[in-house]
Amino acid sequence: MTREAVLIASLRALATHPAARGLNDDCAVLEFGGEALVLTHDMMVEGVHFLPGQDPADIAWKLVATNMSDLATKGAEPVGVLLGYMLGVDDARFIAGLGEALAHYGAPLLGGDTVSGTGSQALGLTAIGRATHRPVPSRSGAIIGEALWITGPVGAAMIGYEAMRAGSGEALAYRRPVALLAEGQALAPLVGAMMDVSDGVLLDARRMALASGVTIALDSLAVPLACPESRRHDALRWGDDYQLLFTAPADIDLPVRATRIGMVFARGEHPLLVDGLPPPEGEALGFEHN
Amino acid sequence: MTREAVLIASLRALATHPAARGLNDDCAVLEFGGEALVLTHDMMVEGVHFLPGQDPADIAWKLVATNMSDLATKGAEPVGVLLGYMLGVDDARFIAGLGEALAHYGAPLLGGDTVSGTGSQALGLTAIGRATHRPVPSRSGAIIGEALWITGPVGAAMIGYEAMRAGSGEALAYRRPVALLAEGQALAPLVGAMMDVSDGVLLDARRMALASGVTIALDSLAVPLACPESRRHDALRWGDDYQLLFTAPADIDLPVRATRIGMVFARGEHPLLVDGLPPPEGEALGFEHN
Q: So what's the ipTM on this one?
């Protein structure tokens, strides 16, 4: 295991609370008053999650969008955010982007902390949401016989990132990803399991299968692309797209646009089958924390 | 203004939500599910808030304690925490200290994010609490005619810090500060205003006076000390003590030990009087974010 995997395992051992699903890639969901409170925290570090020369307004946007996407997977509406901000090269640009993103999602800034730093800039955002439907969707709810769906194409962030690195093109999908809050709320009453594909379709589908104790059979050619067909292999393994991946009956009339890309079966030997076969051992399926 | 002050001013301009009191030195308080949800986020950075050689278990403890102290000022009970953790030199020690602190306060780890980093280690903690009394105490509630009280002595963290720097002594008050959650809950129904003195008694008393629109007259010799009398001047200006500073009637029978250290008057020319005089212009009263 990597150092981070060891750490995460230790933290998971500490996180024994029933609401404690919110480590790295999921939200915490807990009863508060008569409602379900949804909480998520994401950190971004210069040189790891963003490039030193990147526009701080884009970084702020992305920090908000990744957290809002976490809320979207729970069918939650945003209540507000807390910001942990280390002073950077252009704080005014960061705040401009933060303001834009918060206005876009209707999420007020409730508080946080500002600090000076000496090394790479580190940023944290806590998003607080209110579930609009109970039970609150989770990645563990996939039901045998359901179909696997995705709300839209993947590969846009990959193409955008490559364009940005090459200094060409707008790279909007990478710079300004959009969290699907309305879609998540519309889908929440209908889904078995739901998550986003921020770490890659294949990796996230595998996580859903593992959490749900099922096997997911994914039809790789059915996954809609926002990039050339020749990049299909990479696009299925790239993160930073914020489409919603969910299970629901195959014949359902969905309230949002979505594409069927697989089926849920009883758990077999492998949690994930891609075009009928388990992915090769040791092949990276996406962005792994561990 | 410093860069950080400019930043904070910009963030405050963005934080127009009525619950948005939670920037840097206060909690956000909002209605949720028929109850009052209390939220706070603190960040700590290596080289700024802790020393590179410090025991990671102590750093974890302090990160938890500062956030729990914020909850204490609201009379809130902890619901849980979200951790933003950048890999450090000894993650196992950090987790050991985190586990100790969370067990001490009965605050479960609900989730968070772990990241790798390249420079100084940055840590963030979001604490979620439930107010035990309404209205929820704030720093703006001081009432003319009330007395100013403090729950215990200041100066312990200063002495501890100096001992640690000198390599002598246990430095426990600096390494393992204790948040007064039970005291905050017991006081909440009785106080006008309440806050902690984490940035220094004089500075925090001045903030309370400004927020409440009153003048606070503080009797510097009445403030109990956990250090030699010769250090009184410094101890009143040192942060990192987590005593609760609050206003309540002068003749009240308090449920916790506390010392009267001043009075609340109608706002005069100066928000803070120390022994009858305004502190000299330009003199640092404590740890200032701005």
A: 0.90
